[in-house]
Design the sequence.
């Protein structure tokens, strides 16, 4: 079964602190995505990770991919209130023409408090 | 460059009715995927269309169907609506050969 598991599902952080969200998936893939969703809104693409060892950073967020461990992490550095949102990881398990079918984790609801 | 557009943005229907949702991809994008988001089941893949052909289908009943037109615009149809079909329906488009999917604003469907 194709599964994507995120943890934690809920995360309450203080401003200025660091934390990591974990995303495990069930079978081989080298295409992993991180999205942000604000309440009532659509999905905003944060990172696309396409190879083992890939690391991408944007502002206070850094994502990495370990395809051998089937694990991706989203690291938050010195959190600020504006980062409060729900973060999803998603994996494309398809090959060739089967791309475009993303399996999503349940999301991590992040709340950053002053 | 215009993003993915979805119409309508909000819809209220009654059980047993049918509904058609529309998605216009980013210009030049020929792949369109549809997803359903509910509080209970999360984000689930419905189907993907490429060049007017359904290339992938998720695990949804036959009441859920879709199609894609020659201009890459896509529609999805849900027949015999059930209360559990209440959800945010998102479509995403992708450039052929690219990996990134761009999501539209969604259509929020409420079934009463």
Sequence:
């Amino acid at each position: 079964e194709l599964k994507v598991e995120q943890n934690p599902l809920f995360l309450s952080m203080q401003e200025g602190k660091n934390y990591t969200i974990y995303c495990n998936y069930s079978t081989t893939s080298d295409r992993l995505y991180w999205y942000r969703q604000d309440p009532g809104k659509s999905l905003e693409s944060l990172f696309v990770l396409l190879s083992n060892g890939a690391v991408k950073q944007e502002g206070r967020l850094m994502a990495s991919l370990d395809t051998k461990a089937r694990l991706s992490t989203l690291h938050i550095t010195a959190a600020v209130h504006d980062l409060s949102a729900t973060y999803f990881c998603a994996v494309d398990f398809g090959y060739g023409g089967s791309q475009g079918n993303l399996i999503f984790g349940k999301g991590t609801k992040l709340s950053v408090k002053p | 460059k215009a993003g993915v557009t979805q119409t309508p943005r909000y819809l209220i229907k009654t059980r047993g009715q049918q509904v058609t949702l529309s998605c216009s991809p980013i210009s030049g994008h020929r792949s369109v995927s549809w997803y359903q988001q509910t509080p209970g089941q999360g984000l689930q893949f419905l189907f993907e269309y490429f060049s007017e052909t359904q290339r992938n289908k998720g695990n949804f009943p036959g009441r859920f169907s879709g199609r894609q037109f020659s201009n890459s615009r896509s529609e999805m149809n849900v027949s015999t609506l059930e209360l559990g079909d209440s959800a945010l329906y998102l479509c995403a488009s992708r450039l052929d050969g690219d990996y990134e999917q761009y999501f539209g604003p969604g259509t929020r469907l409420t079934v009463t």
Remarks:
- Chain B has no helices and eleven strands.
- The mean pLDDT of chain B is 95.
- Chain B touches chain A through 23 residues (CB under 8 Å).
- The CA atoms of residues 47 and 72 of chain B lie 14 Å apart.
